[in-house]
Amino acid sequence: MVIGLGRFGGSLARELAAHGSQVLAIDSRPALVQRYADELTHTAVADSTDETALRRLGVPDYRRAVVAIGSDLEAGILTTSLLADFAVPHIWAKATSRRHGRILERVGAHHVVLPEHDMGERVAHLVTGRMLDYIEFEDDYAMVKTLAPAEAVGVPLGRSRLRTHHGITVVAIKRPGQDFTYATADTVVEKGDIVIVAGRTTQVETFADLT
Question: Which fold has domain 2-113?
Answer without folding.
Answer: Rossmann fold (3.40.50)
